[in-house]
Protein: biotin carboxylase
Amino acid sequence: MELSKSLAEHGIAFIAPTRLAKGRSTTENKKFLNEIAIKAGIAVLPHSAVFIDTSVLPEEAKNIGYPLMVKAPAASGGRCIREAKSEKELQTAIDSVLRQCERFGYEKSIYLEKTLTYPRVISFPVLCDKNGKSMVFPELDGSIQFRFRRLLVESPSPYLSKEARGKIMSMLPALIDGLGIVGYASIDFFVTENDIYFIDVKETVQHFHGVTNLLTGVDILREQIRLHSGDSLALQKDGIRSDGSVIALNIDAMDPYNHFAPSPGKIERMFFPYGEGIVVQSPFVSGDTVSQNYESVLAKIMAYAGTREKAISNMESALSNFRIEGISTTLPFLRGVLKHPDFLNLKWTGMHMAYESRIQEVLENVNSPEEEEQAALIAALALSTDSNASTIMANAEHGGFLWAMFKGNRKLQY
Structure:
């Protein structure tokens, strides 16, 4: 906060959340956000106040009821947030959140919030200028999560009804005005079949902001800088592309076959896919070492197309050509999600990845890295002795006789 004031005195714009400019702590800000949401007519989940003294939390939990979330006000990206399904799990969750607060340098305070069963996690990106003019962009659906981190994001949400979207859009102007946002913000909601709840406002450009860039053609980072520099919002709604569909995935250095354990180490080979509507962003290249001390995200991949079905197809093709060797990654798991009937048929309930049974169900529909390698060896052997290469490859791509050969020769030695 002192830095922000000092820079302002010297005529330098500081791109930071509004709460810093207003001098509010994260604790004060959470209370402020809920009050503004209620004034705007948006429901909030039952919750406690924010406490530094965590000894009062068991009694607060009884008033709210289980299951509930244990959160730090600065919680984001799966950090400093845990679920407690019963009183027995509460203290463990509190201790875990406090340890993460200390590790990441956050204020060591906690609040409790009632959790819902399988809500959809819907975020509306907005841009606002200093004069109060704002623009709301198509929503992002980040409901497929694991450990409260988004694995997959879609925009627009194929699950959000026209009525629910219209209701949120009608409430957003009052919420935006009350918040006094300048620049970019992501306004988050839980949406169930019958209810809409305000969750949070994030005023830093989010990891998946590229989804909005790709869908609309608007450079969110450029607009963020312009608006914080004092420029007016010049975008016009009719000049922004809003058709089509974008799917985005995080590829992490984690082993989905071992409870998503971290998989640090040297990347022996890394090959990015390419194609129409495919965007890959990664700070890593072949030969780099992934440390266990930092964020596990190796890459972000996005696919844009005119329809959801085509975007899924493009993403499947891209993932089949994405190669990361030397460490375990979530690539096989993500391939399984895209092929899952519930995902394809819009029957996937929100935040389902928190459950081990669901993870195993997804992995049963894909081939492990070891199976992929052995099938590739069989394909190479077959190609070297059979002149009808095109037929062999066509069968391989569709899980034909090469996979049948593999499954009948799991003990094959090379």
Summary: The first helix runs from residue 2 to 9.
